[in-house]
Amino acid sequence: MGNPLEHFELHTLIPLRLFGLDISINQAVVMMWVVCAAVVLFFWVATRGSRLVPTRLQSVAEVGVEFLRGMIMENMGEAGMKLFPFIATLFFFILFSNLLGLVPGAYTITSQVMVNACLAFAVFLLSVIMGIVLHGTHYLSVFVPPGTPWWLTPIMIPVEIISQLARPVTLAVRLFANMTAGHTVMNVVLGLVLLGGVTLGWLPLGFTLALYLLELLVAFIQAYVFTVLATVYIGAAIRLH
Hints:
- This protein has 241 residues and is mainly α.
- Helices cover 69% and strands 4% of the residues.
- It has one domain.
- The termini are far apart.
């Protein structure tokens, strides 16, 4: 069956160094370019010659935009609409990364924890910046929940700091774990199909197709979960609660 984790290994395609730093191009970098190009192409085709009666692709794009708009309004309020480009970019980048990663032979970007960590850190940094810009030093009150007795303050402040720092970690690890686990299971099952397909007929293949459809659903769910938690975290900084 081979190594089921082989798909996640990175191999240098073009070795490059800049000021002593290794900036070599590997399959993950190439796949990021492909994902960005796919998102731009999708919206360019969907919005080209927009019609009053939308085409199917235009309808999909409009539904996606309205879905994100509703999510932002619910979790961040009207002030959060200023961040719509960031939230939309985040959602569609993760979604297309998950979906294109299911194409045979393609690399799954979101299986790299460092990629997810960069996205999660961007969310965390933006939430802190928004909190400070909107509330100034009063933003520090998030580390002392309302109603906390004064004698619990020395304990609550470290706990709240850890809680805040845990947010980007959980965002990154959740997406990484789900995408890695799903692809690993698919690789293992596909190997079993190749081994047992002769004796069991079409049954293993049918199971693989069902698992593939499940992974398609997971691709959407994980993009949604990451984005909705991002809006919740930033919304908490905006509303200061």
